[in-house]
């Protein structure tokens, strides 16, 4: 019994020390890292130039709605411009509303992401396909670069995936 307790304590200590979630993979590049479950798939195919990677939910997530929930990271080098996080987020969300007429911002709040000041926002939009998509974004600025992490789901399945997506988003770190 005592040996089991010691082994469990050592396991918990190592998980805390190294921050690795059990059964999860870690993707690390360009001074940042993110962890994701083994049943999610990493892709470096860039649907847009600013996108650094895409994490896709398990393939069977698209059985009912032909949509695979995903998380992507976009970055924007701010070219020496001094801009506050609040101002950046306001500009970004204004662009969403201007470029996507059906977009509706549902919430925006301050958060701490691994010790860094960040913003979390949730919004919905129909891109003309008749399927309403729902987004949860984390935005932060570090060393002159804006990082935009976006979870995308159909509105119908958002509640089913948002907790797992938030767990993934919460692992994002800027490595010093």
Summarize the structure in words.
Strand 1 (24-29) and strand 2 form a beta hairpin. Helices cover 25% and strands 41% of the residues. It is globular, with a radius of gyration of 18 Å. Residues 2-18 have low confidence and may be disordered. It is built from three helices and ten strands, in the order αβββββαββββαβ. The termini are far apart. 21% of the residues are buried. The chain has helices at 2-18, 85-99, 158-169; strands spanning 24-29, 32-37, 41-43, 51-56, 70-77, 104-113, 116-126, 132-142, 145-154, 173-174. Strands 3-4-5-9-8-7-6 form a seven-stranded antiparallel beta sheet, sandwiched between helices. With 176 residues, it is of the alpha+beta class.
A few lines on this structure:
With 176 residues, this protein is an alpha+beta fold. The chain has helices at 2-18, 85-99, 158-169, and strands at 24-29, 32-37, 41-43, 51-56, 70-77, 104-113, 116-126, 132-142, 145-154, 173-174.
User: Number of helix segments?
Assistant: 3
Termini gap: 41 Å
Q: Major sheet: size, sense and barrel closure?
A: 7 strands, antiparallel
Give the overall shape: globular
Strand content: 35-45%
Task: Look at the helices and sheets and give the structural class.
Answer: alpha+beta
In the sheet with the most strands, the strands line up as 3-4-5-9-8-7-6
Mean pLDDT across every amino acid position: 87
Number of strands: 10
Q: Helices and strands, in N-to-C order?
A: HEEEEEHEEEEHE
Helix content: 25-40%
Instruction: List segments where confidence is low: pLDDT < 50 over at least 5 consecutive residues.
Output: 2-18
Radius of gyration: 18 Å
């Amino acid at each position: 019994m005592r040996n089991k307790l010691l082994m469990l304590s050592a396991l918990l200590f190592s998980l805390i020390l190294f921050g690795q979630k059990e059964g999860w993979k870690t993707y690390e590049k360009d001074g940042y890292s993110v962890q994701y479950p083994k049943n999610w798939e990493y892709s470096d195919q860039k649907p847009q130039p600013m996108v650094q990677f895409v994490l896709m939910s398990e393939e069977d997530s698209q059985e009912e709605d032909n949509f695979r929930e995903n998380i992507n990271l976009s970055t924007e080098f701010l070219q020496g411009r001094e801009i506050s996080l609040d101002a950046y987020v306001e500009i970004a969300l204004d662009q969403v509303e201007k470029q996507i007429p059906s977009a509706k911002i549902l919430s925006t709040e301050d958060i701490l992401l691994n010790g860094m000041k960040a913003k979390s926002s949730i919004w919905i939009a129909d891109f003309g396909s008749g399927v309403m998509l729902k987004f949860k974004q984390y935005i932060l600025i570090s060393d002159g670069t804006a990082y935009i992490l976006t979870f995308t789901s159909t509105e119908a399945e958002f509640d089913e995936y948002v907790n797992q997506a938030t767990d993934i988003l919460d692992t994002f770190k800027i490595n010093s």
